[in-house]
């Protein structure tokens, strides 16, 4: 039961934010939005081994920057986008350090690229039509980074990291489509449920990622001794 305390508390606070907390006042809304992410970060830290590798630390730092993005995006889309982009760069770097490339995993770049091309082309067209040309480059940069982040998670071979990264892509796709292309019914619910689920899965993948990193370090040590 002790191990379930933070996940249960996270679930309750996420439910409270998504379905109960009103949009105003904004300061209260932002505070309740950040609480689930703070719990996820605590959960992630508890999932770390006694001596975490630099790669695992990078993932935790990524979680922190995403939490900053949650706060920033409520007052400035560009600032929030920038914080999330930095967070994804930390995820990307951490996952790559723990990746094990195979032809099958690398082949994931095809559906990811196809999906990004379809969504990205529609977003760019909508931004241009509405005169938001200044956002085109930041949006393209963000889509490239999150796409490679998803690929890097797939290269780890860890199911929770993969599921988390895919849900993150879905969440951001819903958010951007709703903002720039057309309204989506219950968009807030879909965005936040997929987003919180994504972050929780990434955090909960740290145990498996740590074990994999530890096994690889042991193998390298043995090879060096030989």
Task: Characterise this structure.
The protein has one domain (2-225). 81% of the residues lie in helices and 0% in strands. The chain contains ten helices and no strands. Helix 8 packs antiparallel against helix 9 (187-204). The longest helix is centred in the N-terminal third of the chain and has 22 residues, at 26-47. It has 226 residues and is mainly α.
Order of helices and strands: HHHHHHHHHH
Task: Report the structural category.
Answer: mainly alpha
- Radius of gyration computed on alpha carbons: 18 Å
Provide the residue-averaged pLDDT.
91
Q: What is the number of helices? A: 10
* pLDDT < 50 runs, ≥5 residues: 218-223
Note the gap between the termini.
45 Å
Task: Record keyword descriptors for this entry.
226 residues; mainly alpha; 81% helix; 10 helices; single chain; globular
How is the secondary structure organized here?
Blueprint: H1 5-20, H2 26-47, H3 54-72, H4 77-97, H5 103-106, H6 109-129, H7 136-156, H8 159-180, H9 187-204, H10 206-225
Helix pairs in contact: 1-2, 1-9, 2-3, 2-9, 3-4, 4-7, 6-7, 6-8, 7-8, 8-9
Can you summarize this structure?
By secondary structure, the chain is mainly α. It has one domain (2-225).
């Amino acid at each position: 039961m002790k191990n379930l305390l933070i996940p249960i508390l996270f679930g309750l606070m996420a439910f409270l934010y998504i379905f109960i907390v009103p949009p105003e006042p904004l300061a209260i809304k932002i505070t309740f939005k950040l609480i689930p992410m703070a719990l996820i970060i605590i959960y992630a830290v508890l999932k770390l081994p006694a001596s975490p590798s630099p790669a695992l630390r990078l993932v935790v730092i990524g979680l922190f920057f995403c939490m900053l993005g949650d706060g920033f995006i409520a007052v400035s889309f560009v600032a929030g986008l920038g914080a999330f982009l930095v967070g994804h760069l930390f995820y990307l770097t951490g996952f790559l350090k723990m990746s094990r490339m195979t032809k099958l995993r690398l082949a994931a770049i095809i559906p990811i690229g196809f999906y990004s091309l379809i969504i990205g082309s529609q977003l760019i067209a909508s931004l241009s039509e509405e005169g938001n040309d200044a956002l085109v480059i930041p949006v393209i940069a963000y889509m490239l980074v999150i796409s490679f982040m998803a690929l890097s998670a797939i290269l780890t071979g860890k199911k929770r990291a993969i599921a988390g990264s895919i849900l993150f892509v879905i969440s951001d796709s819903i958010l951007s489509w709703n903002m720039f292309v057309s309204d989506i019914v219950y968009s807030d619910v879909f965005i936040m449920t997929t987003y919180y689920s994504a972050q929780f899965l990434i955090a909960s993948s740290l145990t498996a990622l740590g074990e994999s990193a530890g096994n690889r370090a042991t193998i390298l040590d043995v090879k060096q001794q030989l």
